[in-house]
Amino acid sequence: MAGCVHYSPRPLPPEQIAAAFSARRLDDPQLRAAVDTRLPDRARDWPRQGWDRADLLLALLYFNDSIREERATFALAAAGRRTARERPNPTVALLTEYAKEGNQFAGQGGGAPLWLWGLTPDIPLDVGTKRSARIAVADLTAEQARYDFMEVLWKERSAMRRAVLDVLMTEREVALLERVHTDREAQLEMARRRLDAGAASHGDLDRLVADAVADEQRLHDARRRLSAGRSALAATIGVPAVAVSSLPLKWEHLDDPGDVDQSLIANWRDEALLSRSDVHSAVVGYSVAEESLRLEVAKQYPQVRIGPAYTWDHGVHRLQFNLSLELPVLNQHRGEIAEAEVRREQAGARLEATVATAYEEIDEALRQWRLSLERVADARGPVYEAAQHIFEATQREFDAGNSDRTELVAARVARSLAELQILDAVRTAQESLAIVEDAIRRPLEGPEINVAEALSVAAPPEADKK
Asked: Phi then psi for 443, rounded to 5 degrees?
């Protein structure tokens, strides 16, 4: 009994969990130590003047509860490797009885009663295909859990990237729309004065009111989306919303989604079809189904048990040897074998569907990315250049006293609306780039590349194979 594992209670009261979650902050000393270990060149940059995606990725790996849950699932599957290698324990039966003949107890010494007793062990033979197939299933299941864990890591990283992008782009959108809102109010005030002076019509004022109402609605919608984006970022990292409510975010080259050499993309596409974690998981899943079928086929052969025994019978020492096995007279394990065959077919179909989906996702993501880059170029093209040129010319005329404030404000509004079109195009391009990264399962730019190894999972420790 000294070698037994003892139970240690670890209760988790709900109020304790809630309090611990509420206390999570991005200035946590343990998080700081983890970030400094991964990013030693930034160890002195505390408090952060701006959190980029590398910092946030490490915070996500530290706090995110979905990752923690999936890590536990991976650890559970890895622990199953040791269980599969353990040999079944033998059992021992102790037999006792009274020996009696007629009305007298049989035995020696004037018919004194005698106890008969025996010792019968039962030792299962765990050898051959059953054992090897069981171990293979456990090893493959652990490997599949590893790829599933990597898939969860990548999805959480992608959600974090999208949340950061949404917050930064929406902050810019709110700033532009607030400027437009201020200019709209100035336009309305000037239009009312001109109407009172008889220099404008009610139709002119009505059109300005309609434009102001539409822009004000866009502003309120953008503010609402900004709040939701901050909450989404907090949920992805795994901290309360208050922890990121005023968090300074940083994204270098946000306005320049850039392009990537087409030959590199072609290579990445070919590699992704073989290296995507979901494809690997489907491949291993088929191998699990294959080994499970082999195990079920092996189970149709009887499990052999040996039982050497000892019996003391009225002073006579008896040694026995028992051999037991299952008789397949009622069923021959055909039902379980048939189920395993169907599961193998199902796993094969899932593998083919996963590969086909990956191929389609990669090709479509690349097409959409190229289209979004063309849209960015168009948004920065003649329309914006004309709006910028008109505003600059109007500004010079206004400064020279050759135009009134109405024309200047109208030109500034037109330029702001053109900038909103560029902002929307850049957002679409960055979202398309995120889709490309999802399709090939690798970051293509940004500081995350420096900590990309954090998205990989080491294989579990080698189980005892003895």
From this structure: -70, 140
CA distances from 44 to 25, 37, 47, 177 (A): 19, 12, 8, 37
pLDDT in tens, 400-440: 887 788 888 889 999 999 999 999 999 999 999 999 888 88
Alpha-carbon span 420 to 426, nearest angstrom: 10
Tokens 């008789």 belong to residue: 327
Domain boundaries, the chain: 53-455
User: How far is Cα 143 from Cα 460, in angstroms, rounded to an integer?
Assistant: 9
One-letter amino acid at 58 equals: L
CATH architecture under which domain 53-455 falls: Up-down Bundle (1.20)
Residues 122 and 90 sit within 8 Å (Cβ to Cβ): yes
Distance (Å, rounded) from C-alpha 445 to C-alpha 433? 9
Buried b (16+ CB within 10 A) or exposed e, 295-306: bbbbbeeeeebe
Q: At what angle do helices 334-379 and 405-440 cross, to 10 degrees?
A: 150
Strands (E), 41-181: 91-99, 114-124
Which residue type sits at 115? W
Cα 88 from Cα 365, distance rounded (Å) = 52
Crossing angle for the helix pair 202-237 and 53-63, nearest 10 degrees?
A: 50
Largest CA distance in the chain: 141
* 350 class by beta-carbon count within 10 Å (0-12 exposed, 13-18 middle, 19+ buried): middle
List the one residue out of 158, 369, 155, 356 whose CA is nearest residue 265: 369
How far is it, in rounded angstroms, from Cα 87 to Cα 466? 10
Q: Which two tokens stand for residue 13?
A: 């009261």
First to last CA, the chain: 23
Residue-wise pLDDT tens digits, 96-152: 877 665 555 444 445 555 677 788 888 888 888 888 999 999 999 999 999 999 999
Which parts of 264-368 are beta strand (E)? 305-313, 316-324
Beta-carbon count within 10 A of 141 CB: 22
**Token pair of 16, please?**
């304790």
Q: pTM for this one?
A: 0.83
Q: How far apart are CA 421 and CA 392, in angstroms?
A: 19
